[in-house]
Design brief:
The protein is globular and about 50 Å long. With 181 residues, it is mostly beta strands. The protein contains no helices and 25 strands. 34% of the residues are buried. The strands form five sheets. Strands 1-4-7-10-13-16-19-21-22-23 form a ten-stranded mixed β-sheet, with no helix packed on it. Strands 3-6-9-12-15-18 form a six-stranded parallel β-sheet, with no helix packed on it. A four-stranded parallel β-sheet has the order 2-5-8-11, with no helix packed on it. 0% of the residues lie in helices and 36% in strands.
Length: 181
């Protein structure tokens, strides 16, 4: 069952079971939202947006045409996503630049994701960061512009740039996954 707060303006009919959309949200008719999502208050979701299952979107986020969010993604408060690299008032591109946020990624509060970038699987973007290029899977990026600062496992264990945990365990990449050596 989809739960929509009475103060939300939800025009899409393509919303999965177990999703909750809080007050003061606007969801346009073409948007697709998966199951068990939590769309917090004051979120705007445009038409050409696809959101997977088990996604959390915190307050103050706008998700514009051309953005695809895969399963199990966390988007922190006031994250800014863009879709036009050369915006002009009342001049719209034929197609907006596509941005992808892959499975399991987490984006910290107030981060800005420039259009056309891919945030890799299980990566972590630090609060306030500005993403100007693709972020590889399992990477930790932060700063302005954001740079690689370490790695993170699927379970959230932070590794340094040499793929070592704080207690000295060594990890390796195998089949695009981080595993203990």
């Amino acid at each position: 069952m989809v739960k929509i707060h009475p103060l939300a303006d939800v025009q899409s009919k393509k919303i999965g079971d177990g999703t909750y959309i809080w007050q003061f949200c606007v969801v346009l008719p073409g948007a697709v939202i998966g199951e068990n999502c939590n769309i917090n208050c004051q979120v705007f979701i445009e038409n050409d947006v696809h959101i997977g299952n088990n996604v959390t979107i915190k307050p103050g986020v706008q998700i514009w045409d051309g953005v695809t969010i895969n399963d199990n993604v966390f988007i922190g408060p006031n994250v800014t996503l863009t879709n036009d690299l050369a915006p002009r008032s009342k001049l719209y591109p034929k197609q907006f630049t596509e941005t992808y946020i892959k499975t399991g990624a987490s984006i910290g509060a107030n981060a800005t994701i420039l259009a056309g970038n891919t945030i890799g699987e299980y990566s972590l973007i630090g609060a306030g960061s500005v993403i100007t290029k693709d972020v590889p899977p399992h990477s930790i990026f932060y700063g302005n512009p954001a740079k690689l600062k370490g790695y993170i496992t699927k379970d959230g264990l932070i590794l340094d740039l040499q793929l070592r945990s704080q207690n000295g365990d060594q990890y390796i990449f195998q089949n695009n996954q981080l595993i203990l050596r």
